Amino acid sequence: MIHKICTFGLFCLIATALQASTLTWDRTEARIELKPDQEEARATFTVTNNGDKTVRIARIKTSCGCTGSILDRKIIEPGASTEIIGTFHKGKRQGLNHNKLDVFLDSQPDSVATLHMIVQVPTLIELQPKIVYWNTETSKTERSIRVTLDMRYVDTITDISYNRETLTIVEESDPTGKADRILRIIPKSFNSLLRETIVISATGKDKMTADNRLHVFVQP
To answer: Which of 212, 137, 147, 135 shows the shortest CA–CA distance to 178?
Structure first.
């Protein structure tokens, strides 16, 4: 019985490999950089059936809820092609996003291809770090935040908004020139629970605006 199961499993693997080998893709990876005002990225992948049997795409599994797919047609006859359009919805995501689309054929347990959408969402105001905190085990000293602007879109810090009753912030230029501003932050008291948000705003050409948030915590 075990021998029959193993034989059947091997047969399925061979069948999957044979079908996969008859399919050719124009590409399996797409790299895209979104503009700040773009909410969605799309990438088209074209697959061609070079075999002598008709194949059918059963489903496409995505690695993230932010990623979807649009299939031109499921059935691919010998010599024919179809397109898979991968979609990525930005939401509140920033930075590099690597999303996958696994393509499955009828009656095949394993995917015949994995398509990659690598999307760069620009961070117009980058904060390093984005969270600062103090507790009983940390030193009661100031924390330094590096603020870096994406000069392609914003070039001027217009406002740093925070609660002046609970925080002291000193702004400085970065002597290394790697950041556009250094913020040195310290709470006015370490004796009570504190949760604050600092909002950094910036503007650039074509009336582009951006903001980012820094979170401050004190746990006495």
So the answer is: 147
